[in-house]
Design goal:
This protein is α/β, with parallel strands linked by helices. The chain has 2 domains: 172 residues, Alpha-Beta Complex (Aspartate Aminotransferase, domain 1), CATH 3.90.1150.10; 242 residues, Aspartate Aminotransferase, domain 2. It has 14 helices and 15 strands. Strands 4-10-9-8-7-5-6 form a 7-stranded mixed sheet, sandwiched between helices. A 4-stranded mixed sheet has the order 1-2-3-13. The longest helix is centred in the last third of the chain and has 22 residues. The radius of gyration is 22 Å and the shape is globular. The structure holds pyridoxal-5'-phosphate. Pyridoxal-5'-phosphate binds next to α4.
């Protein structure tokens, strides 16, 4: 038999998927799995949302592609909707997160040139960051996977310890053009910024005339319970890269900028053949209309609270597997005791899809449309999957009793009420969630 013709860039988990609908992927054998991976935070409205199918079908009969040399139907309306719900005044559309980061970095440099600072070409980026896979985006990243076996990165980034604003200020030179960061690090393992960090960066950028560039490819479009994650901290960037959830599963990227930055842009300095094509515009606008609709983000936050609470109980019950639960909205990470790839596969066998991240973290990135039932089902599957699971021995701490005590102490120290105080004693809570029949995936 001929071996696969697909280049071996991924260690794929074998799942015979036939179709997707809502929060589920349906397999060829008639079974289904609960999809809390969502195409790695892309399928914001779940699979084949009827409104997105309708928008795509309608547009597919009218026009697929022309060129950015012509006015593209739907682009201005969609861009207006995006700017009227964000800090931005102008938008450039492309096809992916990496492209959005790339465009943002070019625009950052262009801005500094235009304001008479041509030597400002370097960018401060952070340890543990992920910004995509082109040479430049990968060079900006702080995860080993970006540079394994590729030689040295492109020398235009000064990498600073995540969360350390003093180190950021110390790293600024005459050549610094701006600061690039994810407001919450995603691939690095759902790492929230320390208190005051983003506000400090905004102040530093203003003090030194730098561009603050947020990569909201993973955190944006409602994922954290706000339309864009930076809104949690009451600050705005000068430039923002967006993608993933922006297209709800359709390939769209965007670079959003303020008027001050936009004024320095000249035709020809950047572009894209397919960026902003009519199909993407039709789908993207429909996704955005849903996310900004009344009550949508409140629902995301409600589901987030329910899910986090259930996960905290599981952490208490399975401390030898789950060390910590963290996240915002429906961007949630479990700090595991063992390897996250192994646990991702184990969980997938039990019927729940997640997404491994760096540093032994497993991400849950469910569709933003999940309901209480989906959350309960996910918790039940996790509970089941944890029972009897032994994390890879290297990281496993065998003293479960100590771990359980530690988890409980941490929970209480952080102001969390105990499970019993909240009326969800683990013994009562677990079977309540474990509607075992419902797990027949
Ligand atoms: N930036 C961040 C924060 C991401 O999480 C990703 C993808 O995971 C990217 C950029 C790259 O996006 P894409 O894979 O669409 O090129």
């Amino acid at each position: 038999m001929k071996s696969s013709s697909i280049l071996g860039l991924y260690q794929r988990y074998s799942l015979p998927i036939e179709r997707g609908e809502g929060c589920y992927l349906y397999l060829k054998d008639g079974s289904h799995v609960l999809d809390f991976m969502s195409g790695i935070a892309a399928n914001s409205l779940g699979h084949c949302h009827p409104a997105l199918v309708e928008a795509l079908n309608r547009q597919s009969k009218l026009l697929w592609h022309t060129s950015n040399l012509l006015e593209i139907p739907g682009m201005a309306d969609y861009a207006n909707l995006l700017t009227s719900h964000s800090f931005a005044d102008k938008v450039f559309f492309c096809n992916s997160g990496t492209e959005a980061v790339e465009a943002s970095l070019k625009i950052m440099r262009r801005y500094q040139q235009a304001v008479g600072k041509p030597k400002r070409t370097r960018v401060i980026s952070f340890t543990n960051a992920f910004h995509g896979r082109t040479f430049v985006a990968a060079s900006a990243g702080g995860l080993a996977k970006c540079w394994d076996n590729l030689g040295s990165p492109i020398d235009m980034f000064d990498r600073v310890e995540w969360g350390n604003s003093t180190a950021v200020e110390q790293a600024i030179t005459q050549e610094t053009a701006g600061i690039l960061l994810e407001p919450i690090q995603g691939d690095g393992g759902i790492v929230l910024p320390p208190e005051g960090f983003l506000t400090d960066l905004r102040k530093i950028a203003d003090r030194y005339g730098l561009i603050l560039l947020f990569d909201e490819v993973q955190t944006g479009m409602g994922r954290t319970g706000k339309l864009f994650a930076h809104e949690h901290w009451g600050i705005t960037p000068d430039i923002m890269a967006s993608a993933k959830g922006l297209g709800g599963g359709f390939a769209i990227g965007a670079c959003l900028v303020t008027e001050r930055v936009a004024q320095t842009i000249t035709p020809g300095m950047h572009g894209s053949t397919y960026g902003g094509n009519p199909l993407a515009m039709a789908v993207g606008k429909t996704v955005l209309e849903h996310i900004i609709a009344n009550g949508f983000l409140e629902h995301v936050n409600q589901m987030s609270r329910l899910f986090l609470e259930g996960l905290e109980v599981l952490q208490y019950q399975h401390p030898h597997i789950i060390r910590e639960v963290r996240g915002k909205g429906l961007l949630i990470g479990l700090q595991l005791a063992g390897d996250s790839n192994a646990f991702f596969r184990h969980l997938a066998k039990h019927g729940l899809l997640s997404a491994p991240a760096a540093n032994h973290v497993l991400r849950f990135l469910p569709p933003l449309i999940i309901e209480e039932d989906h959350v309960k089902k996910a918790i039940a599957i996790l509970d089941n999957a944890c029972a009897g699971y032994i994390p890879s021995s290297k990281q496993k701490d065998s003293n479960d009793a100590v771990l359980r005590k530690r988890a409980l102490a941490r929970w209480e120290n952080e102001g969390g009420s105990t499970a019993s105080e909240r009326g969800i004693s683990p013994s009562k809570h677990s079977p309540a969630f474990a509607t075992k029949k419902a797990i027949a995936c």
